[in-house]
Structure formats: structure tokens, C-alpha cells
Amino acid sequence: MKKLAVLALALVLLPQAAFADARPVSVYMNGINITEGTETLKPILRDDRNYLPLRAVAEDMGMKVDWNAEKRVVTVGEKERGITMTIGKKTYTKAGKAVQMDVAPFIEADRTYVPMRFVAEGMDIPVDWDKEQRMAVVGSYAKKTDFDEADRVQAEGYSYILPKAWRDRIVVTKKGNDLVFYDKVNSTDGFGRIGQMQVEKDPVQIPVPTILLGKAEGGYRVFTFASDVQVKDIEDKTLTESYATARADVQELLKTYRAE
């Protein structure tokens, strides 16, 4: 599922005039904005469809892509579960069956662009399009883990797992309706803030590294990471290693996020 989700990047049908006047489309893949700060992953609007450069996206996410230059055919994913598209043809093949499209892949500036609506359909991956915020949400940051469900923590409208073994190094405090996560070792000196779980209507505008966890009342539940130095003495190896470990642990436990 993780590999297949890489390719179902957008289901975007946008009028040409509106696209010209609005801000660029953002694509969240498995919780991460993959179009932020990059030119190679920016969408192209053509034939009233949103296209993304397939190879750049696939290779960035570790997806297998095979290109037959002679036949101008691109195969995405494993043969048994993947899809095949031909440049200029309005059909794609899945499991030996041809599926009709109303648009076709094309090549521009040595990049292969595909109509992502049909890639999504071909991979059976749900894609959510937020017209107001001009963002496509593909897949989810949440993943299956080996954590014990008995350690699941209930919050208002959602839950997550904080393993008992980690509770001696991660501190969670409530700030209004938000949760703030700290590295326990550094928090004793007024530092150690890892980040905050909060609801934002427009995640794209958040100026710090962010993980999109899912929809919530009023917008999206996100985790925003602290952008400043959160270690009292960066020369202290014990403090820096403690913070790095706790931060990595929080990124893992966020994979257990579940809307309730």
C-alpha cells in the first residue's frame, strides 16, 4: 500500500482561469508536503487536468518506475499490481486490462507527466482534494506499527500510542485544545520542545516543518515541529542525543494517530 500510494498524487480538476489567479497546488503525500520548496514536483495544468512529473515523484518516494524509450511506455510499480501508460495514448493498462482515459500522459522538458486522477484510480488509492486550500491529500502519515494498543492515549477526537517505555523521556502537556510534546531531559531547563499537535485550516501556510495527520473539525490536525534550538547547551552530547532520540520517537508515535 505504501508503494502504491506514492503515485496517486492528485485528483484535481481546475478551471484554467482560476488556476492562473490562485496560489500553486500543494500535494501532501503520506502527511508530508512534497511540493514545498521544489520546482521539479510542481503540477502542470493541461486539458483541465492536473499532472505531476511521475519519475521525480516516484524516485523521491522510492517507487519503482520502468521506462521503455523505444515504445514510450512507462510502467509504475510491480507488474502484478502496477499500471502501464503510453505517452500520447488515452488508455492505461492494469492487470492486462485496458482502461480508458479522456487525457493522455506527455513529455515536457525531459520529464514524463501523468494525469494523476487516472493514476489514483488505477492504483485504487483515495485522494482528497481541498478546493479552497488548493491542496491534494494522498495517503496518510498513519502506518501500522508494532506498538501495544494497550498504550493508546485518548484525546479529544483522536488518539495515539505513547509506549510505556518512552514515557520516561517524552513529556506531553495540554495547551488549550492542543498537545505539546517535550524531551523530558531538556525540558527541565525550559527547553526540549519537540512540537505541537493542533488544528489548522490552512496547513500550507504554516512556516515550520509540519506533518498533516488528518481532517478535523475546523480544518486539519497537524503536528508542527519547533523551529528554534531546543537544547540548552548544543555542545553537551547527552542533551543533544536525548533531544534527537525523543524527536525521532515522536515522529514514530505520530504514525499511530487515529481520528475517533
TrEMBL record:
Residues spanning the signal sequence: 1-20
Domain Copper amine oxidase-like N-terminal: 38-135
Keyword Aminoacyl-tRNA synthetase appears in the UniProt entry: no
Xref: Pfam families: Cu_amine_oxidN1
InterPro entries hit by this protein: Cu_amine_oxidase-like_N, Mao_N_sf
Protein origin, superkingdom: Bacteria
Record's keyword terms, sorted: Signal
Entry keyword annotation includes Signal: yes
Protein name, entry field: Copper amine oxidase N-terminal domain
